[in-house]
Amino acid sequence: MLDPEHPIAKLLREDRRYRLEAYAFVFEALHYAQQVLHLGRPCPTEPLPGETEPPEPAVHVSAQELCQAARQLALEQYGLMAKHVLNSWGLYSTSDIGEIVFNLLRIGQMRKTPSDRREDFDNLYDFDEAFRPDFRMTLTE
After folding, report:
1. Residue 59 and residue 88: Cα distance in Å, rounded?
2. Least confidently predicted of 27-36, 38-47, 61-70, 124-133
3. What's the predicted TM-score (pTM) here?
4. Taking burial as the number of CB atoms within 10 A of a residue's CB, which of 6, 65, 77, 78 is the most buried?
5. What DSSP letter does each residue of 56-88 carry, written as one string?
6. Which of 24, 3, 139, 34 lies closest to 91, judged by CA?
7. What does the pLDDT look like over 101-136, one tens digit per residue?
8. What are the domain boundaries of the chain?
């Protein structure tokens, strides 16, 4: 059970659009992007509130890479039910993934680079198309 004083518990009370599972899924997709798909690159990140020194460079995953990983992970875990499962948690678009990431940034549960923007997550793919068996996504640099 989540401690009611944990920052994510507070966030869930403030922003009721997304369920706890959606936040957990985004963390899992980030791990999947970095550890399984080997996406991202070392990059300096901004310090969290209260940190006095800049953090060590971390492996930074772009919005596009995170959304690609989320799609692949959802299909791997939930198959043809992926879209339905994500929708049940409040995820209907890549913009929702961005909202979750920036909520987590706001409460100090994720880090960002100075160039990261919420809009980077908008319209990366359509959920109706992306969760069809024949959908193909390509990364652009």
Report:
1. 30
2. 38-47
3. 0.85
4. 65
5. PPEEE--HHHHHHHHHHHHHHHHGGGHHHHHHH
6. 24
7. 999 999 999 988 888 999 999 999 999 999 987 766
8. 7-46+57-130
